[in-house]
Each structure stands twice: as structure tokens, then as C-alpha cells.
Structure to design on (293 residues):
């Protein structure tokens, strides 16, 4: 853009529409870049927590290590907040608010299901949580109109659910590790797309 | 180059149009974000924001984030209507010139 002092140069209709389009696309790019940062953060956390809990369960055979899952949101939310404040603050719009609600709903589902599972361990908890995680990612991709996120979410949800049906006991935690990897990889792809 | 004497003169300015195009797509945006997206200087951006505010197209809230001054801009209903009318006029002009 021309940064002359008055900035009142006459524009053609096409130049004006191009400028409007450029600014709207820049907004979209900023929101996608911001989402990518959160995919990377939560993907990395999921990967680290699932591998750590898998190892602890494998070595000690003590199911109480599953309680460590509750440390993930405790650590993740302050980190996400810190990430949001880093650099230029990206303004909110209808899409970013909807994305926020999708992931907040997933978090609520995951926490409540995990609490219920502490008392009555259902055999399908991994399947349920991984399918919901994939659904949340896929829905985010549809809102953002971004194919890598849509495909990543589909692979994570459907692929993860199928694998969860096939594996047993603590090996199911590796499904979450793969899910974390897909989530973080999706974030990295989106980040590289819009750099 | 074709000129537009009938277009809204407040919007028919490169930087003001850029600011309005950003604000139309978000709930609100702070000064730093607008400056980064438009690539304008602080002084120039302030002048154009004041003009948009004087026209009633945006509201400006000045405050502090900690000890740092923080300015937030938000498009008004009048601003949204003016912007939509401006875009419609541009489209009409383009279709007429084809």
C-alpha cells in the first residue's frame, strides 16, 4: 500500500475492490495462522501426555497414572492464553468465536467423559474421545475452509476410532499419541501455507 | 484512470478503505493490528481513524493495557451500511463499464 501522508489518491473501482479483497484475505490468513499455533500447542501436549502416561502405565501397572490427563488442560489453557498474547493480538470475528466454542465443547466432553470413566471404565473411551477430537478438528477445517485441517480431522477421527477398536489396554494411549501428532502436523502445514 | 466523484469520499481513500475493510470482518481491532495490516505509519493511521470516527463510521476506545496505551476500533452500524453501499456502487460501476 502507498503510505503517502494524505493517502487520498483516487482509485479505480477495480483497485478499490482489490484492496477490500486483500484486507479480507489478510484477516482470514491471520485467523488461520492463529489457529495453527493452537493446533501445534494442543497436538504437542497430547503427544507428550499420551506417551508419558503410556510409559508410566507400562512400567508401574498403576492405573492411577491416568489422572495425569487432568493436568493437560491445567497446563494447556495458561499456555494457550500466553500464546494468544504473544505478538500482534489477532482480532476476533464470527468464525474465531465459533472455533473457540467448538474446542471448548470438546474440552467439556473430554473432561466429563474422563471423570465418568474413573468410576466406570467404559471400553470405548478412547474410541469416543478420538472420534470427537477428529470431529472437532474437521468442523474447524470446514469453518476455516481449509482442506489440510478437514482431511487431518477426518483421518484423526475415523482412523483413530478404527485403530482404537483394534488395540487393547494401554496401547490405546498410542492412538492419542498419533492423534496429537496429526493435530500438530496439521498446524505446521497450515502455518507453512500462510507464512 | 477513471475517477469516482459520486462515491462516498470518506471511504474512497486508500487507507480509510483498508481500515474499514479490516473492521468489517472482525468484532473489533486494536491500533497495532490495523497498523500491521495496512502498513501505514502511526501518525497517518491516527489521522484517518479520526476522520472515520468523525463520520460516525467507527467507534474508538482508548485505554491502557498495563502501562501501555491501547486503542481499539469498532465499526458502527452506520459504517457497515456505508461500506456495503460503497461496495455495491463499485460493483455497479464495474458492471456498467464492461
Amino acid at each position: 500500500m502507498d503510505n503517502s501522508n494524505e493517502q487520498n489518491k483516487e482509485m479505480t473501482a477495480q483497485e478499490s475492490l482489490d484492496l477490500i479483497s486483500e484486507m479480507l484475505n489478510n484477516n482470514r490468513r491471520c485467523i488461520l495462522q492463529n489457529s495453527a499455533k493452537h493446533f501445534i500447542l494442543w497436538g504437542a501436549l497430547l503427544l507428550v501426555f499420551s506417551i508419558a502416561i503410556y510409559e508410566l502405565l507400562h512400567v508401574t501397572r498403576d492405573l492411577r497414572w491416568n489422572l495425569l490427563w487432568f493436568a493437560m488442560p491445567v497446563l494447556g489453557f495458561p499456555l494457550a492464553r500466553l500464546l494468544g498474547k504473544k505478538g500482534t493480538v489477532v482480532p476476533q470475528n464470527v468464525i474465531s468465536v465459533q472455533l473457540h466454542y467448538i474446542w471448548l465443547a470438546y474440552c467439556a466432553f473430554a473432561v466429563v467423559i474422563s471423570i465418568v470413566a474413573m468410576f466406570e471404565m467404559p471400553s470405548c473411551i478412547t474410541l469416543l474421545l478420538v472420534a470427537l477430537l477428529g470431529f472437532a478438528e474437521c468442523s474447524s477445517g470446514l469453518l476455516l475452509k481449509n482442506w489440510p485441517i478437514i482431511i487431518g480431522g477426518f483421518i484423526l477421527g475415523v482412523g483413530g476410532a478404527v485403530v482404537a477398536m483394534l488395540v487393547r489396554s494401554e496401547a490405546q494411549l498410542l492412538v492419542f499419541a498419533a492423534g496429537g501428532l496429526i493435530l500438530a502436523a496439521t498446524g505446521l502445514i497450515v502455518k507453512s501455507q500462510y507464512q | 484512470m477513471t475517477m469516482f466523484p459520486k462515491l462516498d469520499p470518506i471511504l474512497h481513500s486508500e487507507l480509510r478503505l483498508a481500515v474499514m475493510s479490516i473492521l468489517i470482518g472482525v468484532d473489533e481491532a486494536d491500533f497495532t493490528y490495523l497498523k500491521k495490516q495496512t502498513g501505514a505509519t502511526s501518525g497517518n493511521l491516527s489521522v484517518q481513524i479520526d476522520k472515520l470516527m468523525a463520520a460516525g463510521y467507527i467507534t474508538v476506545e482508548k485505554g491502557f493495557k498495563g502501562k501501555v496505551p491501547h486503542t481499539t476500533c469498532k465499526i458502527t452500524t452506520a459504517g457497515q451500511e456505508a461500506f456495503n453501499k460503497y461496495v455495491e456502487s463499485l460493483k455497479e460501476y464495474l458492471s456498467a463499464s464492461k
Q: What stands out?
A: Chain B has one domain: 27-97. Residues 77-97 of chain B form the longest helix (21 residues). Chain B has a mean pLDDT of 89. Chain B is about 55% helix and 20% strand.
